[in-house]
Amino acid sequence: MLNRILNYFEYGNHFCGIEHYSNNGRDILQLCLLKQSKNELNIELAAKVETIEQASKKLSKNQHVVLIINTDKVLSKTIESEQNDALKIVYKAFPNINLDDFYFEVLTENNTHFISLCRIDYIEPILKKYTEQNIHIIDISFGNTIISSVKSFIDSSTIHTSNAITIIKDSYIVQIKKHEVEHNIYNINGLTLPNDQILSFSAALQSVLNNSVTKTNFAEKKTSLTKNFKHVHFFSQFLKFGGLFVLVLLLANFFFFNHYFNKVNDLKQVSKINQSTKAQILKLDEIVSKKQKKVDDLLKSNGSKSSFYSDRIMQSLPQSILLSEFNYQPLLKRIKADKTIELEQNSISVSGVSSDSDAFSNWIALLEQDYWIDKVEIIDYGTTSSYLSDFSIKIVLINE
Fold first, then answer.
1. pTM as predicted
2. 186, 17 Cβ separation under 8 angstroms
3. Architecture field, domain 2-217
4. Using CA atoms, how far apart are residues 296 and 301, in angstroms rounded to an integer?
């Protein structure tokens, strides 16, 4: 899993091969673009164009490519030898060659060696044109040698390409020779390909499988090309994921800010409500304080008056009368919640028993003569026994 992730960051999930070849004197670029999805490969693009500019329009920016040069500028030979040293094999095939001017590639199949080489001053301008079109070459192959990447996937002893035929015997390539184009269809693990797409497909597949078996003299060049692409690709991915990361941060910051902004607004509203409630409470407290003061003053006033009235009445009371109730400003109604307390203003209710009716009458007359009493009303007077009588009177005070 980790290797897959690292490989994705290095190369992405699109792999491309491009073959340069000639047909009837016309240069052709055959493109094959593979897309890797999990463990599957699918052909996303197969196209023919005539120029690198046209190829760049078919591919995404900064696509990496394995390039095959298969034109008449490539020199190819096949030799038999038990020698394994690539330089010696090349010099044996081309004795007078100056390898400072050429890139070469050697494919060895048992004791058969397929040598292809091309002038450096022909290759470099092509590489430069691809770079200018934001296409990055990461490997180069010459002639038909890259067919070795797919020979094991094709169930046939002969494989036709865009300009040659490859003959396979006992799983080894025994001959690659120029041949007129024959239209053949090949099935490679469920993918259907015409013969002129075989080499470009092989190039794309080789960049996926990394299964090249050829020997070259441009390993440093390949390393440099791959390194340059990885730098560009990493920078591109870094910008992409960096932008995504910044966007995620901005979104997180937005949601975080929005969350706490709403919290702050809620708190502000609660604060306003609390301030309003506090103001109402202070206002009510002020009203209650004023009313409490009035009540206290009233109680003090009533208390002093009731003391005065009770003292005067008690002093006037004959010995034959015993009081059971003295109620200053009695209630008119029972106290109920949310109802105003109603008092009988300027009156005193007095109840008790009397053992002498004459003394009771004289006491009433005495009270009526007092300056602070307006009148005395006898509410009730009844005999309870042979010598005692219950009474209830109301003393109406002069309204001050």
1. 0.62
2. no
3. 2-Layer Sandwich (3.30)
4. 8
